[in-house]
Amino acid sequence: MKRTSFFGTAAALLILSATTAQAQVPVPDIAHFRFDSVGATTPNDVVGGGDATWFGPAGDNVLATGLINGGSQTNDENGGNGNEHYRVELPLMDGADGLTISLWFNQNVDSNNNSTYNGLFMVRDLLSSFGGGSENWGIALENNNSPRHIDWRLDGAPGPEDDNIMGNNQDRWDHVVYTWDGTDQGDGMGERALFLNGTELQRIDAPIGTITDSGTWRIGDDACCGSREFTGTMDDLAVWGQALTAAEVMELNTNGLAGIDAAGVTPPKKGDTDLDMDTDLIDFEVIRANLFRDFGGTPPTRAEGDLNGDGAVDFVDYREWKTEYDSENLPGSSSVPEPASAVLLLLSTIGLGVTRRRG
């Protein structure tokens, strides 16, 4: 019988584990916008606390279904007047000698009045130790050149466009990642890279240095020309103060497609109050028991029925639960109130309150 060497087996297992191990993606340390909370007028930055502010008419941005739970849908209704986007300042970026931007986007809004150049995440007043002042950094979707491609800029210089073919991505989620490493790579230069849907498209030399003033970034717009707003849905915008590796970017993409955000978190299931990953009648009873309840100045929690984090348990939470429950169960289920009978839900809640007072 042929003997198997212990050391040979151990070495083989070590090689196998090394080749199959997943990259551990660092948690975003500059900004992270999940776009999951209600009131998309002020998307929350869960890292730096610098919430983004909406510039545009009310109703032109809504909380929509994203790739990972909620997303922010914007619509350039005014045909490109520069007034429909978010703005945010990112002071945690100041002093960084590296940068990674990760963003999911979907052009799933039909009435795109600006079909030429759509800013995704861009700035035009950033300052660096090596730039010329008021620098243009970030990523955009350029639709007017053939082929359609991602425009990615550092100190105003666009990266190569070769092979950055997007095709027709109407109503399709795409993942774009931009990295810059401002440290010496051994040749007196830094480097930057562009990734689309987990695949590295470009890697080129870049200046060495640091970001000294991050400026004001725009989500869904480019400040140039007043007509570069993005029309569609964005999700899970994350920013790091370092350049992620190709393996980490691939893991980001894989995680996103599996419903895991850039911080490695799987968002709660829609309609699920008790976080058991099941939207059921137990969750309904929680919402019904706390509907319009006065919590005495303390915002209710998800466990108390506030599914969307707006500080109240109301019909919006009920609708979220109802929509998710219906999608998982046979239509016409008689055990759940239909949307048209929401009044009955309210009446039952009032009745429950009366019963409690009498008791």
Write the layout of secondary structure elements.
Layout: H1 6-20, E1 31-33, E2 53-55, E3 61-65, E4 70-74, E5 85-89, E6 98-106, E7 117-128, E8 135-142, E9 149-154, E10 157-158, E11 174-181, E12 190-196, E13 199-206, E14 211-213, E15 216-219, E16 232-240, H2 246-257, H3 281-290, H4 315-328, H5 342-358
Antiparallel strand pairs: 1-16, 2-5, 3-4, 4-16, 5-15, 6-11, 6-16, 7-8, 7-14, 7-15, 8-9, 9-10, 11-12, 12-13
Helix pairs in contact: 3-4
Q: Rg from C-alpha positions?
A: 24 Å
Q: What is the molecular shape?
A: elongated
| Number of contiguous helices | 5
> Helical amount among residues, as a percent range?
10-25%
Which parts are unreliable, with pLDDT below 50 for 5 consecutive residues or more?
1-20, 352-359
Which structural class fits the helix and strand makeup?
alpha+beta
Features:
359 residues, eight-stranded antiparallel beta sheet, disordered N terminus, alpha+beta, 27% strand
Report on this structure.
It is elongated, with a radius of gyration of 24 Å. The chain is 19% helix and 27% strand. The chain is built from five helices and 16 strands. The relative contact order is 0.16. Residues 1-20 and 352-359 have low confidence and may be disordered. It is an alpha+beta fold and 359 residues long. Strand 8 (135-142) and strand 9 form a beta hairpin. It has helices at residues 6-20, 246-257, 281-290, 315-328, 342-358; strands spanning 31-33, 53-55, 61-65, 70-74, 85-89, 98-106, 117-128, 135-142, 149-154, 157-158, 174-181, 190-196, 199-206, 211-213, 216-219, 232-240.
